[in-house]
Amino acid sequence: xxxxxxxxxxxxxxxxxxxxxxxxxxxxxxxxxxxxxxxxxxxxxxxxxxxxxxxxxxxxxxxxxxxxxxxxxxxxxxxxxxxxxxxxxxxxxxxxxxxxxxxxxxxxxxxxxxxxxxxxxxxxxxxxxxxxxxxxxxxxxxxxxxxxxxxxxxxxxxxxxxxxxxxxxxxxxxxxxxxxxxxxxxxxxxxxxxxxxxxxxxxxxxxxxxxxxxxxxxxxxxxxxxxxxxxxxxxxxxxxxxxxxxxxxxxxxxxxxx
Length: 258
Description:
14-stranded antiparallel beta sheet, single chain, 24% helix, alpha+beta
């Protein structure tokens, strides 16, 4: 159920700014968790084309994803051995890092979401009202590209080509849900792919403990032109579950011994 905004509501920009700061805090805290990621790709008929399941754990300061199942089957034999070898190589590579390389890898991880800080400057914001999601009150905020926005980072360039809506939990000021619609073609990489208008992206989050929120599901649908040659229908879903806190070093040992 939704209710309209009223004069006593806070400034939507301030709501979004605080929610982004909290998102970054939670993003950094994810290194205290191990969890499962499931990637599902559907074909044109809507049937599942591929499904991969990963166990994600912190490894020397950044997450490491290890495939544990594919297309409904737990990896065994050579497939499981191959994933174990990949883990060993990743661990060896990180053990060989110089202090400068270690800092650079950690900084790259930290910077992956830095472009979100540009959202308050990239969009005009309007508080549409309030809506209850999973029994919790949320602000509903419309995001419309702001004319004249000059991005500071590469990833922020897409903000001029999308419009969206945020559901921000009123108590915790976290994103319960975020929706983005592509209104102009978005380029990814250097002519590697272009996502056309009409593509739709939805992200939902869930509260995993008394303080932190983590991703629950990301859905992407639309049409992309790969290498500017082949059109591909996008129907991808990534879901996250089984968040469990790990003690320092425990995730590395657990992943190595599996």
